[in-house]
Amino acid sequence: MNCPKCKNKALEPFENDGVEFDFCADGCLGVWCDHGELKHYVETINDLPGKVNSLSQAVQTLFKCPKECSNNLVELPYIKGKEILLDYCPSCHGLWFDFKELGKVESLAINIDKVGKLERTMERLRQRGFKVMGSS
Ligand SMILES: [Zn+2]
Ligand SMILES: [Zn+2]
């Protein structure tokens, strides 16, 4: 998988806090997050806290998704009205962070829709098909 911005640089996988990111180690130092990785990392309920609002401000870019979908990424705000713009793939829902954007998102995420570690674990169990007692 190649960097969407540098194109000829391969992204290197690395793990941090149980989340595997892909990192443009040899180029722009940008980071790719697959769908669902960001929310685990910053402990929010969704990758994009106000997804519908963010999508309403999406602008097409010339950068291609690094995954097989190779769609054009769209640029959208992490939170509507905030200055942090991310690149997002409408097809696989992956997100691209330019250098230092991930840190800015982390500090924004502290104040929004934060869920605890227990909730995250429960959510992961549910995604694996774990049946909570009493649910059908
Ligand atoms: Zn790069
Ligand atoms: Zn994609």
What small molecules are bound in this structure?
zinc ion
SSE-based structural type: alpha+beta
**Helical content band:** 10-25%
Low-confidence region ranges: none
Number of domains: 1
Instruction: Summarize the helix and strand pattern as letters.
Output: EEEHHEEEEHH
User: What is the arithmetic mean of pLDDT?
Assistant: 87
Tally the helices: what do you get?
A: 4
| Strand line-up in the sheet with most strands | 1-2-3-7-6-5-4
Radius of gyration: 15 Å
Number of strands: 7
Q: Hey, roughly how much beta strand do the residues contain?
A: 15-25%
Name the shape in a single word.
globular
User: Biggest β-sheet: count, sense, barrel?
Assistant: 7 strands, antiparallel
Identify the quaternary structure here.
single chain
Could you tell me how far the N terminus lies from the C terminus, measured between alpha carbons in angstroms?
A: 40 Å
Descriptive report:
- With 136 residues, this protein is an alpha+beta fold.
- The chain has one domain.
- It has four helices and seven strands, in the order βββααββββαα.
- A seven-stranded antiparallel beta sheet has the order 1-2-3-7-6-5-4.
- β2 (19-23) and β3 form a beta hairpin.
- The radius of gyration is 15 Å and the shape is globular.
- It starts with 11 loop residues before the first strand and ends in a 9-residue tail after the last helix.
- The model has no long low-confidence stretch (mean pLDDT 87).
Architecture blueprint of SSEs:
Layout: E1 12-16, E2 19-23, E3 31-33, H1 37-42, H2 51-55, E4 59-64, E5 72-77, E6 85-88, E7 95-97, H3 101-109, H4 117-127
The structure holds zinc ion (2 copies).
